[in-house]
Every structure is written in C-alpha cells, then in structure tokens.
Request: fold
Amino acid sequence: MCGIAGIVESHGRRADRETLADMTAALLHRGPDAQEMVVADEMGLAHARLSIIDLEGGHQPMALANGRLRVTFNGEIFNYIELREELISKGHTFTTRSDTEVILHLYQEEGEDCVHRLNGQWAFAIWDGDRHKLFVSRDRLGVRPLFYTRTANRFLFASEIKALLRCPDVSLGLDLQALEQVFTFWFVLPPRTAFRNIWQLPPGHSLTLENGDLRIWQYWDLRYAPSSDADDKEKQLADELLALLQDATRIRLRSDVPVGAYLSGGLDSTLIAALAKAVIGDNLYTYSVGFEDPEFDESIFQRDASAFLHTHHSETRCADDDIADVFPRVVWHSEQPILRTAPAPLFLLSRLVHERGFKVVLTGEGADEILGGYDIFKEAKIRRFWGRQPSSRLRPLLLKRLYPYMDTMQRQSPSYLKNFFHVSPEELASPWFSHLPRWELTRKLGCFLSHAARAEMKFADPFEEIAQQLPPAYGSWDSFNQAEYLEAKYLLPGYILSSQGDRMAMAHSVESRYPFLDHRVVDFAARLSPRLKMKVLDQKHLLKRVAHGLIPASIEKRYKQPYRAPDGVSFFSRGCNYARELLSPDSLRKHGIFDFKAVSVLAAKFASHRPTSVRDNMAVVGILSTQLLLEEFMYHQDPSEFSRTPAELHATRFDT
Reply:
C-alpha cells in the first residue's frame, strides 16, 4: 500500500519536478519506506512506498524494459501470481516478483480492459509514452482513493487531496453542495469531493487523458439478479460462499511481511480471522479496540474470539478524552466533514498495529452491505410490514425491539414513530424508502447552517443528484437489493472504506485488506435471494450458516451491535479547548458556514450535560469537523497544533 501522485503538463511544458516532490512529501504517512519519482517531458509520476510485496525489487514508478510504459500504483493485486504465470506463457519476461510489474505487462497485453482481470484493491496510473496517454483506474468497490484536478496548464492526480493542494496553482474552497450531501447522506456523491474543482475518480471507473481530452467511464457496477426461490439450495449456496471466502482470504494473505487481523467482536471479523488462522496456523496476531464506556464496549466478545481461535491478541482502550485528542488528525486524514467520531478509535487501532510492527491487517468490512447485515435492512422490512396496515398499534412495536439500546426511541408514541419512519403510501413508493428515516434525520442538520450558506445551496437538491446516478435497472430490483445497493455503492466507499478505512489505517502506514470485498464474493452475493440474506428478520442468515462451528457460539448467537463510539460528549470534557474555540461565535463568524446562535445553543446543551439526541450528536460532530477542515486546509493549521492545554490555547466561553 502506498501513496501515488502525478502531473501531466500541457502546451509543451515539462513536468515540474519540484511540485511533484512537494506532492509526494504530503503522502509520506502512506509510504514511509521509499519515495521516488520520474519526469519525462510533460509527464511526472511519483510514489511513496509501503513495502509489502517484493521488498527488494518492487520499487516505483516502474517501467517496462523499453521505458515507454511506466506505472505508479497504490494497492495490491491479489491474483498477481496466476496472472504472472499466464503472461509468461504468452512470452512476457519479468524482472521482479511484484504485482506492480504484472499490471504493466497485462496493460501491454490487453490495454484498458486489463482491469477486468484484476482481483484486488487499487488506484494506479500508467503513462503510455508512445501515445502520450495517461490511463488511470480505481478498484471496483473503492477501497483505494484517487483524486484529480485540472488547472490552466496541468492535470494532477494523487492518493489524497492534501497532495494536490501542494501545487500552487490549485485553488482551494469548500464545496457547499458537497457539504449538503454529507449533511444528508453522510458522504459526498462522487465525483465531487469536499473541495471545489477537486474530484474523485468513482469506484469501478477508469480515466484517460490523451491530447488534452479527458475521458471517464465505468467498467464495473453492482448488478442484482431477479429474486428467485433458492431456499432449497441453501446448503449448496452456503458451501459455495464458504469456498469463495476461503480463497478470498487465502490470496489476501499473500505478502512478504506478516499479516494480522482485526477482531471487532462480531461475526464478520471473527470469521475472517478463523479462515486466516486455517492458513497461517498458530502464528495469527489479532487486534481490537475497546471502550471505557460499557455502552460501546465489545471487549468480552473480542476476547472470546481470540481465546477460541488461539490468536496472539492485543487491544487498545479508548476513552472520551482519547477521541478528543486525535480528532483533529482524524479530520485531516479524512479530508471531509464527518458526522460521527467512529473513525477516531480506528485511528487508535491502526496506531497499535503499527507499534506492534505490522503493516497489513485483514478486516471484516463489506459483509453487512452485501449479505444483509445492517439494521437499516431489517428496519425497512418492518416498515413495509407496518405500511401494509398503517393503523396497527402492534406492528410499530417491532421497531422498538429493533433498537433496544436507543432510550429515546423506547419512549416514543406510535404516531411519532409513524412520522419518523415514513410509512405512508407515497413514501413506500420512494426509490430510497429504506434510507428515508436516516437521510431525513440527517438533513435536519441544515438548520445549523448560516443564511448565506443555505442561500448558496438552495438550487442544489442532493436527492435529485443521487437519483441521476442510479442505474436503469434499479427500479426493477427487489426493495432489499435497492437498500443494499445504496449502502454498498455509496456509504461503503464514501465513508466506511475512506473515513473509517483507508484513511485511518494509512495514517499509521497500515494496509487493510477486505476478503468480503473480493469481487467474486460481491458478485455471488448479488445473485442470492434476499430471503437467504435475511430470513424473516434473521440478518446475514446464509453467512451465519457458513460460520457455524468456525466461530464461538457467543458471537454466532449474540444480538448484532452496530459499531459506535462516544460522540458529542468527547469534546466537552475538562480539557478540550479547541472544540470550545472552534464552536465559539467568533470562529463561526470567521468561516460563515454555520449560524452562530443555533450552534451556541447546541454547544451549551452539551456543556451543561443536558440530555442530547442522535441529531444533536451528529450536528456537533459535523459542525466541529467542518470547522477543523476549514482551519487545517484553508488556513494551513497543522492538526497537531490543536492543543488541549490551556496554556497553549485559551478557552473561550460559550455565549448562551
């Protein structure tokens, strides 16, 4: 895993080596082992390396023997051994054992279609010197990031936005339409980013730049088969899924450095650790994060998993103050506003992995999105059941049983629940019926925006923008599959794999690998009947059958607990002065994004320890992360300068 960057100049200009070096320097956390670059005429490619495969021979940017094809590559191609053997049989000669060289030879053999042959997680750029053409691609599910921008004379790309901002002719400004999307969906819809005129290459897409012409196209997308009666084939399908997961895990253990695994205490990560243990043997090292607050802590299940699998286990503990301490760096790495503090404990977890000397970990992300694991899928099923008899007083009680850990919901009346969960006939027909409660709740955060910000946003409709991106067949899919698509297509790459995944792991030079996101597993899951993913209200039904006997009974039978972390309370402890400063009226007026009166009331609510809601917590985290983003990027303040020491940063009282 690495960081990549590049420049293609126009108008006959030679690529600027100094700018390229500055861009590479911004990516050192992604690639601390080596930094190299190549400049040839209008092209410049750079690479910051985290050495994992072919430690001696895998240096980048890499070229074929004639030097006309060059690549800079971030990621791993897990089937590179099989592809290498096939290419050798066709007459290709290799000088390294790296997966990077396989990409070059495969491109030489198959051109832009080479991406269809790759099983992995990648963002790479190939310069074809004969055609003066740049070819860029990003993996199917969006595990690895790729950003780009154009100026008057340059096309620039990089693994992170902060590298693009090292170029002096890249202008910087917050994209308020992107902010509205975060404050509706939790993510920015690609190709937008949080910054104006800086774009992300969407997952499953490739790009070419040739003779100044930019072309972007989609080479892969999730496709769901029509629902079918497959219950009689359940055992056969479970066997097929297990075989796919075994192989997906096996090839993700390919590495010239040790590979560990995360244990969250849930079904998914425990199963992946079990499959890894079957390959590695008694030398599997596992890692987890626990919480001081018992409401969020899953340590007992993490320890059960480790004891059952006999792994060498390490854990880090996370308190409210720890979240406040690292949150500025979390935002700096995320490069977009976030509505939850959940990335912060994962930042601490990757730090633990780094301190233990590991560079690679397996994780269980992706199973919930493709195999029916989220409460939002169960919630939508209950809401449709209620919608068939909207006057029922018993059916809404199922929603209270769904969220036993949410005290505020337990106190609500059926009429409130009906309004909150959107069960009218019109709402039942919505293409995003499954997500209406979440998105409508999050969209209410707009009440904290300033009049000026709302005026600029008024011509943008985030729902219209996402509607334009839905595939033509979307309306014909089962409603369960529609819900899965929205999670896997957007929330997964836009938040979970970025703010909680790649960015938090690579902050400490750790590569995460995701067996559930092997495209063979994803395509297989898309062909399954929804009834095998959720049988009545039994989430991940088929996966549980696969896992039976491979994981502890305590984990197999436990009630699913979503991963959460303490939110607003983390920033109102005795020492978190930067939060008080950034939420103060003076700071809010300075940036002009938020209504200082509304925010002052919200902040006072937390400061006085009065009861707060889910919306309150999303609001305070979203506002604070946006303020941090503006300070860190617009005003170039290093996140390490945000201090909790009164001597270094004067505390500002709230105006209430």
